[in-house]
Write a structure and sequence with these properties.
CATH superfamily: Jelly Rolls
Shape: globular
CATH architecture: Sandwich
Number of domains: 1
CATH topology: Jelly Rolls
Radius of gyration: 16 Å
CATH class: Mainly Beta
Largest sheet: 5 strands, antiparallel
Order of helices and strands: HHHEEEEEEEEEEE
Length: about 180
């Protein structure tokens, strides 16, 4: 991974994210800020917890401006096809291999509705640059490998719900999110 010119600590990142309203933050600027963020491996490892039936969303830090999570994926686990209901997103692969698929509404679909179609698919590894989804971007993440996957996600503002899409239906469902480690922290 390219090392940013000026790395920042978590404290520096918190201050930078609080300097301007999140609604004024561009996705490129957000990716730049997250790209500079250096997190101790010990902090990430302290949030590594897997679930058997679905991927785990393990909260590290939440402020009014952003949230930082460690997501843990067993082989075969995947997210829904979703957008972030207006939140910006940056993802770094900590260990394993992430499969990322990007979607768009099919031609003629109403704004904010499905069905959606696959645009691209990539496999991302720890040494590669950040991955991100801008406001309104639609994607699906998965662990299609045979080994566990750990990813670090930053959402601005905090991600409280998703809009879930389908490749066959125009329906879009809202899904509330929870953090897998909420009771442990």
């Amino acid at each position: 991974m390219d090392v940013p010119a000026h790395e920042s600590s978590l404290e520096d990142f918190v201050l930078a994210m609080g300097r301007a309203p999140v609604r004024e933050l561009t996705h490129d600027r957000f990716l730049d800020l997250v790209g500079r963020l250096t997190l101790p491996d010990e902090l990430i490892e302290s949030r590594v917890r897997f679930l058997d039936d679905e991927y785990a969303r393990n909260l590290v830090l939440r402020t009014p401006h952003f949230e930082l999570l460690v997501l843990c994926w067993r082989p075969g686990q995947a997210s829904t096809i979703h957008d972030h209901a207006g939140s910006l997103n940056a993802i770094r692969v900590h260990s394993g291999e992430l499969t990322s698929q990007v979607f768009r509404p099919v031609a003629g679909a109403a704004p904010g509705a499905g069905p959606v179609e696959l645009v691209s698919a990539d496999r991302i590894h720890p040494a590669e640059p950040l991955l991100g989804v801008d406001r309104g971007g639609i994607h699906q993440l998965a662990n299609a490998s045979a080994k566990p996957l750990v990813t670090v996600h930053v959402y601005a503002p905090p991600l409280l719900e998703l809009n879930v899409y389908d490749t066959e239906s125009a329906a879009v469902a809202k899904r509330q999110l929870r953090h897998s480690l909420a009771e442990d922290l």
